[in-house]
């Protein structure tokens, strides 16, 4: 593809000046429209050393309002970044809706270099690119506009550019010994780039190859590409919102205000929850000894995990009044509070709503050796948001694959991941609700929403069944906990955590 590209393209100063002012005005107007829209823009810059990646990013900051631009350039990961899955630092830096994010040396950089230098083979490179595609598809499906620019120079043009920079006292710092080593491997890097672009230039995130020899031609190519893409994307999103508004106004259409159960959840069908033995109990006289034993076991394992740098992520889901809080308290009582964080998940804040729904969970992943407990989690997208109509069918349907990929990255990084569904029967829930209603110090736990959710028990049961079937994988299985008896549930939870920690530490 680079061999057939038109090299040496130029734009005269007169032509550039003629286009510059109206183009800049148009871009600024589009940026203001973007701020009022519900989409982020992600600009990825990659390519040949000296081809103008940094210059292009600087120009966008100069021409547009930089207050609404997030610019990120990545070097080797810090200790904090290495202690989490690789994509943690990219998720953390994503621009919120209405803003533009510029990314240099980002998610393509490491796998590209590894393949070009022979550190990984083509099969491993393709696996890396599949993960990147999944990441970009996840963002694009949520409305993000993704533009990727490969800044290109021919081999001799690159050599000339590097020498020119070296001779400039104010620019010489930009040329390193590594740049010249890369130049010597030019052909290998170009073969890797052709493979990368062929595999990852898709409709939702296409690559634009920009000839970087002439700075005016390069600037106009990038700026016009951004303008054209913004025009198209904003108009497409406007039409989508118009269609959604018209559909919402149609009688019988779920409004997304919590008053509609999606019609695919058919009551009465058997579910995985029906297989649980809800009569299981742990006698009171055995409970204290069993609880103390498992708490002591987890306490020792946490210290060992801390020494080995192994993090633990625990997810608690379950019916209202199923005992999640009680199980979490018995577990955390055994842990070192300095190495522990409990994340109570409620409705997203304005900041969180401006991002992809997984963003707030990615950013909460703990450092090496820490324990992070999620009291409710990312599964809200396929449970409450699905049943109550807060998420569209497209949104919750694609969430299963997005969640599997998220959890796979957690496990592949060497973290312990446990997911618990605490199950109680409908009659037991009613009894616990009445107890809360009649007990002054428990009354605050009961809300009108809890009673409303009971009316949709069957729909939730079907949603839970599909959630378990589609997200209980070999590496991230669900543990279904029979929680009619709180003592049995608490001991089972802590024992399961201990067993999971032992398995991971044995492999390490």
Automatic annotation (TrEMBL):
Residues passing through the membrane, by range: none
Superkingdom, natural source: Bacteria
An annotated Gene Ontology molecular function: polyphosphate:AMP phosphotransferase activity
Domain (Polyphosphate kinase-2-related): residue spans on this chain: 11-230, 283-503
Record keywords, A-Z: Transferase
Protein name, per record: Polyphosphate:AMP phosphotransferase
Species annotation: Roseospira marina
One of the GO biological process terms: polyphosphate metabolic process
């Amino acid at each position: 593809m680079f061999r057939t590209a038109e090299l040496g393209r130029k734009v005269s100063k007169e032509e550039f000046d003629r286009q510059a002012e109206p183009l800049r005005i148009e871009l600024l107007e589009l940026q203001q429209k973007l701020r009022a829209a519900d989409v982020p823009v992600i600009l990825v810059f990659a390519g040949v050393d000296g081809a103008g990646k940094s210059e292009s990013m600087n120009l966008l900051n100069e021409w547009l309002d930089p207050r609404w631009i997030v610019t990120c350039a990545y070097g080797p990961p810090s200790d904090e970044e290495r202690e989490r899955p690789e994509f943690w630092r990219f998720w953390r830096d994503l621009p919120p809706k209405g803003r533009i994010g510029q990314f240099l040396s980002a998610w393509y950089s490491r796998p590209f270099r590894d393949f070009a230098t022979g550190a990984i083979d083509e099969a491993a490179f393709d696996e890396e690119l599949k993960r990147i595609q999944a990441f970009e598809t996840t963002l694009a499906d949520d409305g993000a506009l993704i533009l990727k620019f490969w800044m290109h120079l021919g081999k001799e043009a690159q050599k000339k550019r590097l020498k020119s920079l070296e001779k400039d006292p104010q620019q010489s710092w930009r040329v390193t010994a590594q740049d010249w080593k890369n130049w010597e491997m030019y052909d290998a890097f170009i073969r890797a780039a052709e493979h990368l672009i062929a595999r990852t230039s898709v409709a939702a995130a296409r690559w634009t190859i920009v000839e970087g020899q002439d700075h005016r031609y390069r600037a106009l190519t990038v700026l016009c590409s951004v303008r054209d893409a913004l025009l198209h994307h904003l108009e497409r999103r406007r039409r989508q919102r118009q269609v959604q508004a018209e559909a919402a106004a149609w009688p019988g259409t779920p409004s997304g205000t919590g008053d509609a159960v999606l019609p695919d959840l058919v009551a009465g069908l058997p579910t995985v929850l029906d297989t649980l033995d809800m009569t299981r109990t742990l006698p009171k006289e055995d409970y204290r000894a069993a609880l103390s034993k498992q708490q002591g076991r987890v306490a020792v394992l946490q210290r060992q995990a801390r020494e080995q740098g192994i993090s633990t992520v625990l997810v608690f889901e379950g019916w209202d009044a199923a005992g999640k809080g009680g199980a979490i308290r018995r577990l955390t009582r055994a842990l070192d509070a300095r190495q522990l964080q409990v994340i109570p998940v409620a409705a997203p804040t304005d900041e969180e709503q401006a991002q992809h729904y997984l963003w707030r969970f990615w950013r909460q992943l703990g450092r090496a050796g820490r324990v992070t407990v999620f009291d409710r989690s990312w599964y809200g997208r396929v449970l409450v948001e699905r049943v109550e109509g807060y998420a569209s069918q497209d949104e919750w349907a694609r969430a299963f694959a997005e969640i599997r990929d998220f959890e796979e990255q957690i496990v592949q990084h060497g973290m312990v991941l446990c997911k618990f569904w605490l199950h109680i029967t409908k009659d037991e829930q009613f009894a616990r609700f009445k107890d809360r209603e009649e007990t002054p110090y428990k009354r605050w736990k009961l809300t009108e929403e809890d009673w409303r959710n009971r009316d949709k028990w069957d729909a939730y049961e079907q949603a839970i069944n599909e959630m378990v079937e589609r997200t209980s994988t070999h590496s991230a299985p669900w543990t279904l906990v029979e929680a009619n008896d709180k003592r049995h549930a608490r001991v089972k939870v802590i024992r399961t955590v201990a067993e999971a920690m032992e398995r991971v530490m044995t492999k390490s």
